[in-house]
Inverse folding.
């Protein structure tokens, strides 16, 4: 058409495209944290065969019943033999879709340096079972022994943490029973040294620490003196404790009878954790 200029549209500049990409990338990173419910089940099964006052031979069977009924996401196990963890891991896989993983850490025999043994010859110690909802990104296991131990007790106490990559840390322990002051020193090492080192190696994620600490809320010494100020803390009225980092809230707690199969009720704690969503999803 005569008399009017014809303007050719220019393609977007490289700078403009980069700016758009940067904005879109920034939006992906800024996705809000998701709220995830975790059910944590703590059990001391007294299944070594050594403590005849609480050993019944029925504790693992009863634990399997509780896992089937409650479908916990994390199970922390104290006073168990290595095969007990394998049996209960199989039970966990029956009640959960997604990945179930397990870890076991034996106590150490202070006289021989070898793993401490149950009466049946299996290794004796603590365990963690963990259901990891999809997507499974892997997991790592961390463990160690406390620097403070009772020289008169051949059983040297250990701690164990399982890191579900991108999800949470789940830790357990069974502290010394011969001295409350020694148990407190072990608790202080766990929460002040060992767990922070795990978090530094595997990343800051919601962290659950659960176990039979042989310390009581309101006791002397008081278990609260080794719990970091920013942790949420619940107990079963006895020596079983569950502690979680401040990125989690405690929704409910409940004790579950074990039908006299062991000397401790199971302790179930429901948590709500805040977890940053993967920007790639």
């Amino acid at each position: 058409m005569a008399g009017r200029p014809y303007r050719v549209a220019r393609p977007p500049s490289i700078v403009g495209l980069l700016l758009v990409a940067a904005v879109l990338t920034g939006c992906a990173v800024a996705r809000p944290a998701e709220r995830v419910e975790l059910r944590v089940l703590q059990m001391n099964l007294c299944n070594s065969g050594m403590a005849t006052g609480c050993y019944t031979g029925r504790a693992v069977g009863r634990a399997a019943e509780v896992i089937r009924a409650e479908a916990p996401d994390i199970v922390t196990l104290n006073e168990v033999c290595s095969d007990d963890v394998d049996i209960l891991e199989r039970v966990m896989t029956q009640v959960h879709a997604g990945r179930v993983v397990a870890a076991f850490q034996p106590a150490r025999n202070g006289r021989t340096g070898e793993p401490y043994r149950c009466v049946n010859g299996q290794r004796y110690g603590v365990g963690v079972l963990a259901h990891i909802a999809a997507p499974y990104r892997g997991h790592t296991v961390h463990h160690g022994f406390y620097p403070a131990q009772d020289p008169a007790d051949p059983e040297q106490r250990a701690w164990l943490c399982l890191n579900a990559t991108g999800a949470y840390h789940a830790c357990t322990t069974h502290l010394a029973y011969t001295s409350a002051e020694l148990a407190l020193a072990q608790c202080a090492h766990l929460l002040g040294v060992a767990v922070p080192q795990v978090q530094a190696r595997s990343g800051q994620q919601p962290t659950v620490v659960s176990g039979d600490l042989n310390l009581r809320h309101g006791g002397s010494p008081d278990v609260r003196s080794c719990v970091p100020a920013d942790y949420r803390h619940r107990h079963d009225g006895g020596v079983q404790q569950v502690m979680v980092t401040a990125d989690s809230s405690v929704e409910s707690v409940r004790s579950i009878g074990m039908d006299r199969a062991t000397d401790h009720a199971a302790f179930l704690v429901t948590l709500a954790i805040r977890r940053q969503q993967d920007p790639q999803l």
Remarks:
- Residues 35-276 form a domain with the Deoxyribonuclease I; Chain A fold (CATH 3.60.10.10).
- The first strand starts at residue 33 and ends at 44.
- Confidence is low (pLDDT under 50) at residues 1-9, 14-28.
- Helices lie at 14-29, 59-70, 82-95, 180-202.
